[in-house]
């Protein structure tokens, strides 16, 4: 019965069932380093997020999801929407908004895609 419901919702959302996306982003060494810097230094995502076996500081009650699990749990297009406006997808989330959807620049759009690709490449 669960699969029937999932198939139904997949149909309504015009999504494939089962959800199988084996996304393997391709980076040059420079792109990878730049995206890693965005995540770890500029936006400081690892202050809250677990990254593989790397734990953030502070109380575990305040930790955000493990970014290494994203490739198995999230669709690439959803990650983009989340990074663009987390409050729209989950009002009240602790995830800060770094981008203004109303005035998104080409550079910011590139940053979002770089972050998405880097997150999907985390082991």
UniProtKB/TrEMBL annotation:
<dbReference type="InterPro" id="IPR036909">
    <property type="entry name" value="Cyt_c-like_dom_sf"/>
</dbReference>
<dbReference type="GO" id="GO:0046872">
    <property type="term" value="F:metal ion binding"/>
</dbReference>
<dbReference type="GO" id="GO:0020037">
    <property type="term" value="F:heme binding"/>
</dbReference>
<keyword id="KW-0349">Heme</keyword>
<keyword id="KW-0479">Metal-binding</keyword>
<keyword id="KW-0408">Iron</keyword>
<dbReference type="GO" id="GO:0009055">
    <property type="term" value="F:electron transfer activity"/>
</dbReference>
<protein>
    <recommendedName>
        <fullName>Cytochrome c domain-containing protein</fullName>
    </recommendedName>
</protein>
<feature type="domain" description="Cytochrome c">
    <location>
        <begin position="30"/>
        <end position="123"/>
    </location>
</feature>
<dbReference type="InterPro" id="IPR009056">
    <property type="entry name" value="Cyt_c-like_dom"/>
</dbReference>
């Amino acid at each position: 019965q669960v699969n029937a419901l999932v198939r139904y919702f997949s149909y309504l959302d015009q999504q494939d069932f089962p959800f199988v996306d084996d996304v393997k982003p391709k980076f040059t060494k420079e792109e990878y380093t730049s995206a890693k810097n965005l995540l770890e230094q500029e936006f400081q995502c690892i202050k809250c997020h677990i990254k593989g076996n790397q734990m953030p500081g502070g109380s575990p009650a305040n930790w955000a999801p493990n970014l290494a699990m994203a490739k198995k749990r999230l669709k690439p297009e959803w990650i983009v929407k989340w990074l663009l406006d987390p409050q729209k997808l989950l009002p009240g989330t602790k995830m800060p908004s770094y981008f203004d959807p109303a005035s998104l620049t080409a550079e910011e759009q590139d940053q979002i895609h770089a972050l998405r690709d880097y997150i999907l490449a985390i082991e």
